[in-house]
Amino acid sequence: MRVAVAGCCHGELDKIYETLALAERRGPGPVDLLLCCGDFQAVRNEADLRCMAVPPKYRHMQTFYRYYSGEKKAPVLTLFIGGNHEASNHLQELPYGGWVAPNIYYLGLAGVVKYRGVRIGGISGIFKSHDYRKGHFECPPYNSSTIRSIYHVRNIEVYKLKQLKQPIDIFLSHDWPRSIYHYGNKKQLLKTKSFFRQEVENNTLGSPAASELLEHLKPTYWFSAHLHVKFAALMQHQAKDKGQTARATKFLALDKCLPHRDFLQGYG
Q1: Topology of domain 3-267, per CATH?
Q2: Per the confidence metrics, is the pTM higher than 0.85?
Q3: Which of 6, 66, 144, 178 is the most buried (most CB within 10 A)?
Q4: How far apart are CA 48 and CA 69, in angstroms?
């Protein structure tokens, strides 16, 4: 099975599918599954735009509505999680996940699916400590506070995912697991994104909730977005018992969908 992974989509489905088609023509064959790591922006109409936490100048319909209306159909099965720039009222209708358009599936606040024998998990949103232990209390119409708190990760979602017993092959999060930068080319990362330096040195960049899940679930692959830079890492986990083979997670973060940026990666 061939899998493609996209970073921040920002509603640019047409461009992502066009890039995917170009890669398929140049590559070994068609892609079976597309995974999107947040900021998907499943905007159906102008009312959805007003529920997205972005400055007004960035409130554009983009192209998801064409797939929602049936004008177009996604050429490949697409799974996505939520980020911090979403049509939050739309995603709030599907807390446990569901179809947002033909061939496009939302994993929910926290969810796991199996496709062709591959177990794929994900958690939506980004980490903010002041909301982490709260429940989900937000509802439309959102005010200036709840339009942001609605996409903050809650500990109940982390708890749910930690109950999983079977191995996870692929996991998706929007923000990076905290400390993952220590397992890749940190020097190159800081050369590309020098303003990360203080947070990296203080070990505050990324999500401690995602880090907790990474250490607990030990998936084979972990994909993220959010920071708009491509970054790879390999985290070797400690074996629980003597004689057990230690597992490793291959981490990859991808950029946002823009020309000449590393926003798409293929596997298989």
Answers
A1: Purple Acid Phosphatase; chain A, domain 2 (3.60.21)
A2: yes
A3: 6
A4: 14
